[in-house]
Amino acid sequence: MQIENKRAVITGAAGGIGQAIAALYASAGARVFLVDRDAARLESVIAELGAGHTDQVHGIALDVTREEAVARMVDEAEGALGGIDVLVTCSGAITERELEDMSLAEWREIMGANLDAVFLACRAVFPIMKRQGSGRIITVSSQIGQRGAPRFTHYAASKAGVIGFTKALAREAAPHGILVNSVAPGPVLTSFNRDLRAETLDGTEAALPLGRAAQPEEIAGAALLLASSPHGDVFVGQTLGPNSGDVML
Ligand SMILES: NC(=O)c1ccc[n+]([C@@H]2O[C@H](COP(=O)([O-])OP(=O)(O)OC[C@H]3O[C@@H](n4cnc5c(N)ncnc54)[C@H](O)[C@@H]3O)[C@@H](O)[C@H]2O)c1
């Protein structure tokens, strides 16, 4: 198997896409350490994926925007798995607001959830991967970071930031054998968008060239490719777009 016995940390693993990535990785023989701040949902994901394979699935509930919590996440993951070969940063948050009505607090909340969290997790795993002389980091950005969308200046800026961060870190990390890439999904059928306005959600799927949003499982394959060897071995600083055709680069 392409990622058999690899040790992967996945944030946002109680969410739709993170859970799908965790399930695909585990089914491909990876050992996973799952992280989310939603303790109840995380517990049930760990129980479901870990049934019969308790050594394969571990996790911890914490807030990945907090520096000390991320340090703890990496310590616990290293302790449970014996090292970290793959990091997937999949946690994220979204709200909807016209620029004029957006408070600095709301702006910062979204930047913190989507960008600070990626910085903190990558910085924390980097020394471990460097010591190992290998690693894979997969950030989850968004097609909104590539194309923009009205009432999402904060979300678009944070996700465009993730893509820029990914490219810069990819150049810094590749000489150490660490490959850094991003997955930028289009609309995906999870509860992520549940609080968005009806006018925003209406017609979204019809506007896509494919005419439909994705299921989380259809996003997970891109994260598997980027973690796998040999098929993912020469992706460096790329942003893969499983997005139903919303953005074409
Ligand atoms: N669903 C979509 O349409 C879509 C489209 C493009 C990109 N994305 C991105 O995909 C990623 C996953 O989204 P999803 O659709 O699975 O959403 P989701 O809401 O199902 O999952 C997100 C998870 O992240 C967790 N989380 C949020 N903030 C956290 C924090 N500070 N600390 C720890 N955990 C935290 C939540 O508890 C939740 O379980 C996000 O980064 C999102 O921006 C989603």
Automatic annotation (TrEMBL):
Biological-process GO terms, alphabetical: fatty acid elongation
Pfam entry (one): adh_short
GO function terms (MF aspect): oxidoreductase activity, acting on the CH-OH group of donors, NAD or NADP as acceptor
Alphabetical list of PROSITE patterns matching this protein: ADH_SHORT (PS00061)
Domain of life: Bacteria
CDD domains: SDR_c (cd05233)
Entry similarity comment: Belongs to the short-chain dehydrogenases/reductases (SDR) family.
Protein name per UniProt: 3-oxoacyl-[acyl-carrier protein] reductase
Native species: Allosediminivita pacifica
